[in-house]
UniProtKB/TrEMBL annotation:
<dbReference type="InterPro" id="IPR029063">
    <property type="entry name" value="SAM-dependent_MTases_sf"/>
</dbReference>
<feature type="compositionally biased region" description="Basic and acidic residues">
    <location>
        <begin position="84"/>
        <end position="97"/>
    </location>
</feature>
<keyword id="KW-0808">Transferase</keyword>
<comment type="similarity">
    <text>Belongs to the methyltransferase superfamily.</text>
</comment>
<keyword id="KW-0489">Methyltransferase</keyword>
<dbReference type="GO" id="GO:0032259">
    <property type="term" value="P:methylation"/>
</dbReference>
<protein>
    <submittedName>
        <fullName>Putative polyamine aminopropyl transferase</fullName>
    </submittedName>
</protein>
<feature type="region of interest" description="Disordered">
    <location>
        <begin position="60"/>
        <end position="97"/>
    </location>
</feature>
<dbReference type="InterPro" id="IPR051419">
    <property type="entry name" value="Lys/N-term_MeTrsfase_sf"/>
</dbReference>
<dbReference type="GO" id="GO:0008168">
    <property type="term" value="F:methyltransferase activity"/>
</dbReference>
């Protein structure tokens, strides 16, 4: 079982890249374990989520520290502002949520942490401790790119769909909920991660054939290997492949996408989580842009454009949704027909897709 200090250090660097409030962590347990073995059961260590409107990254606090006060301009420290300060602090205390670490283990490929809160269960991976899977308890949709994956079946032929980079199975959960007769094939290279997802994230339930015939077949192995194929081809392929917080380098090569395209049936499509522009902007010594041409900075989309000229679409999630870029292969879809085939907010989000047009 991981020690309290190790878990606190691990979680202190967790960065919510999606539509979540920002948090500080305060360790409230006085117990710890010196065992170096991996934790596979619920930890007795407890923490508190402290929502902070002034900090968009997780900060580590010692067990004796108190929540940081909200930012106030020096010139406004009058009696009215003091009352506002008290009100904000009271609201902050009301937002405190106890949570527990269900698993903290290191595999060959990942540092794996699974966190349970009253509202959701989260999978954090690798040194970035970004969220790689989310399962909300009070609502189905995540408000992030996994929801977009669930819209893919509406614009592809009937047939099996591959999920390359299964993780904790968020996309599979949403797709089978919306389209219960789907046949999904999930691939992930990390067997320990898959075991933890079965134990804590409901993945094993998806592996049972439901009443509509839908099912998820889980495969452990390299998602880009030649063995990832089915007779007749996939109707769709979802690609969500990251390592240490970065898109796999193979996805920045046009040849990779041409190989994946060969695994599709006629009229099949690929939908891709391309990450953001921040890494590319950092390499260039600049700042990531949020305008309509910012997709050009994304290395994965560049490779896709080379592989599928005039047959690629893109969209960018909002800041609250993580700002990830998504790409879709094939002819530009009829957005109105696509929107009409999916419910609620998903329908509105589809209208944000744009064709990739390089002059």
């Amino acid at each position: 079982m991981a020690s309290a200090a190790a878990l606190a250090t691990s979680l202190a660097h967790f960065r919510p890249a999606l539509s979540l409030p920002s948090f500080s962590f305060r360790h409230t347990s006085s117990t710890s374990s010196s065992s170096s073995t991996s934790s596979s059961s619920s930890s007795s260590i407890s923490f508190i989520f402290l929502a902070s409107a002034t900090n968009k990254r997780i900060r580590k606090c010692s067990s004796s520290c108190s929540p940081p006060p909200p930012f106030l301009p020096r010139a406004l420290h009058d009696s009215n502002t003091t009352q506002e300060n008290r009100d904000e602090q009271q609201q902050q205390q009301q937002q405190e949520e106890h949570f527990s670490v269900l698993a903290s283990v290191r595999s060959r490929y990942n540092d794996i942490v699974i966190v349970d809160t009253p509202k959701s269960r989260l999978l954090l991976l690798d040194s970035t401790h970004n969220i790689h899977s989310m399962h909300n308890k009070g609502q189905k949709w995540t408000g992030a790119y996994w929801d977009e994956f669930a819209t893919l079946p509406a614009i592809i032929p009937q047939g099996p769909i591959a999920i390359l980079g299964l993780g904790g199975g968020t996309a599979a959960h949403l797709m089978l909920d919306l389209w219960p007769s789907l046949k999904l094939e999930g691939w992930d290279i990390d067997e320990i991660l898959i075991d933890k997802a079965r134990e804590y994230l409901g993945l094993s339930e998806l592996e049972k054939c439901n009443k509509d015939g839908g099912v998820l077949c889980v495969n452990v192995g390299d998602a880009l290997s030649p063995s990832v194929m089915v007779p007749g081809g996939y109707a769709g392929i979802v690609v969500d492949l990251f390592s240490d917080g970065k898109v796999l380098p193979q996805l920045q090569e046009a040849a990779t996408w041409l190989e994946l395209n060969e695994k599709l049936m006629t009229h099949g499509r690929i939908m891709v989580n391309c990450g953001g522009t921040h890494a590319e902007a950092a390499k260039a010594g600049g700042v990531a842009s949020s305008n309509d041409s910012s997709w050009i900075q994304n290395s994965t989309i560049k490779a896709l454009c080379k592989a599928f000229p005039k047959n690629l679409s893109w969209k960018r999630m909002t800041e609250g949704e993580g700002e990830n870029f998504l790409a879709l292969t094939g002819p530009f879809p009829d957005l109105n027909m696509w929107s009409a085939s999916v419910p609620g907010q998903l329908s509105l989000n589809i209208q944000h897709w744009r064709p990739c047009e390089l002059e």
